[in-house]
Design brief:
It is built from eleven helices and twelve strands. By secondary structure, it is α+β, with helices and mostly antiparallel strands.
Length: 474
């Protein structure tokens, strides 16, 4: 864990550009290693092939000598020129040997250049580099001009030294190439990616400090690649977000003012309603005729103030969902049949006795009371749409893990102007004098319980559907 923390700290200090530089150097070195392995094997093969070619020249001198014998001085010079201890060749079925000292009893390694494949050459090169050997090296190569093959006995030390020198040259060349390539890649990435990304992050941080300051918004560059698209999208998002924040701040300030006004206005209207209640008991016919309408008007005004205050308060509490019987939750809704005197609205409960629902009982009761009250009031004010007695129906069914509740009536239905913003506060009012808060609050409560409140299409009246799925079992 400490090691990971240390690595994370180093990565944070070097930054994105530093990591890109290190990765570039690493990848170039890896590529050079992949190039070096076959290169050093090919270098070893060429070095040995050159010795075989020199041995063939020496063999031609031996073949041209009288009786195919040369002096010791010439033999020494031939062997020194080739760098071999002994040279043997086979031509016409006969073998000839050129040497000065006795042949070694054994050799450390044999290399047959006539049949060696690349894997064998690579393995041999690695063996020569990693295992210094005192035993001589036997090399066999193709012959020419009637010579079947040429065989050499070599000291492996010069070969190993030449391969080490070649490896150092490859290493130095790789480092130079890696440095140049990494520098160019680093510069290109720095200009094309890292600096624009830093500009984006700085702008995001600056915009977060003061979103309403127009000078902090990013100005998109001329680029049309992914960075340019990100800059354009960020500029558009900042403009939209700044506008919404200004609007919400103004609405919050307005809401605070309206809440204060509504609070005081509700107190005044409550006092006025008490005075009007007394007027209802006077014997004056004019007062008797006007008082009910005045009471109704004051009641609507008080309900409007209460609904506005309720919506302006803090968000609804989180539901305390549990599996409970639906019938007791409907008790308050069924008592609303007499809400409109003289309308004779009937409420039919068609829910099963044993139906259980997974919801907050208090919040679900508020939703159902709201829907039933709206239906009763609509029937009391506008009558029915099919000529039948006014009726509100409550139905509920369970299918698997989902309970569906339907509250419908046979009233006149909802006007088109109310359908578009039915569940939006202050915009979905259905009847005159309404606020549109009831359905907005009901939809919010259903959503908190994991369900959906929707308006179904119906031929007569209004039909609201509540879909409440059970919570997933853990």
């Amino acid at each position: 864990m400490r090691g990971r923390g240390a690595l994370r700290g180093i990565a944070d200090r070097i930054g994105l550009s530093g990591r890109l530089l290190l990765l570039t150097i690493l990848f170039v070195l890896l590529a050079e290693v992949l190039i070096y392995v076959p290169s050093v094997a090919n270098f070893r093969r060429n070095w040995l092939s050159d010795r075989v070619a020199a041995a063939q020249v020496a063999a031609l001198v031996l073949d041209a000598a009288p009786q195919q014998r040369v002096s010791d001085d010439l033999a020494r010079r031939l062997l020194t020129g080739v760098g071999a201890r002994a040279i043997a060749l086979k031509a016409g079925g006969a073998r000839r040997l050129l040497n000065l000292a006795a042949m070694p009893p054994e050799v450390g390694e044999s290399v047959d250049l006539r049949e060696a494949g690349w894997l064998e050459l690579i393995a041999g090169a690695w063996h020569t580099l990693s295992h210094p050997a005192d035993a001589p090296l036997r090399v066999v190569g193709h012959g020419m001009d009637g010579v079947d093959f040429v065989e050499l006995i070599l000291d492996p030390t010069p070969l190993r030294e030449a391969m080490i020198a070649f490896s150092w040259r490859i290493l130095l060349t790789s480092l130079v190439i890696s440095g140049i390539t990494a520098g160019l890649v680093f510069l290109a990435l720095q200009l094309s990616i890292v600096r624009p990304v830093r500009r984006l992050t700085r702008n995001i941080a600056a915009f977060a400090d003061d979103p309403e300051d127009a000078s902090r918004r990013i100005t998109p560059s001329w680029r049309n690649d992914e960075i340019g698209v990100a800059e354009t999208a960020l500029a558009r998002m900042e403009a939209v977000l700044a506008g919404e924040l200004r609007q919400k701040r103004r609405l919050a300030e307005l809401g605070l003012s309206v809440s204060k006004i509504n609070h005081e206005l509700r107190n005044l209207l409550t006092t006025a309603q008490l005075l009007v209640d007394r007027l209802e008991h006077t014997a004056d016919p004019g007062v008797q005729r006007v008082a009910p309408r005045l009471v109704a008007t004051l009641g609507r005004a008080i309900r409007y103030c209460e609904a506005t205050l309720a919506y302006g308060r803090a968000a609804e509490r989180l539901p305390e969902r549990r599996r409970t019987a639906l019938r007791p939750i409907l008790a308050d809704a069924l008592d609303l049949a007499g809400l409109v005197p003289g309308a004779a609205v009937r409420i039919e409960d068609r829910t099963p006795d044993d139906l259980l629902v997974d919801a907050d009982p208090d919040q679900l009761s508020r939703v159902l009371v709201n829907l039933v009250r709206n239906a009763v009031q609509a029937l009391g004010l506008a009558g029915t749409g099919d000529g039948a007695p006014p009726c509100v129906t409550i139905e509920a069914t369970r299918r698997g893990g989902t309970v569906t509740m339907v509250v419908s009536d046979n009233g006149p239905g909802l006007p088109e102007r109310a359908r578009a913003h039915l569940f939006e506060a202050f915009q979905g009012a259905v009847r005159a004098g309404g606020t549109g808060l009831g359905l907005a609050i009901a939809a919010e409560l259903v959503r908190l319980n994991g369900g959906v409140l929707a308006l179904d299409e119906s031929g007569v009246g209004a039909r609201f559907r509540i879909t409440l799925p059970d919570r997933a079992q853990t």
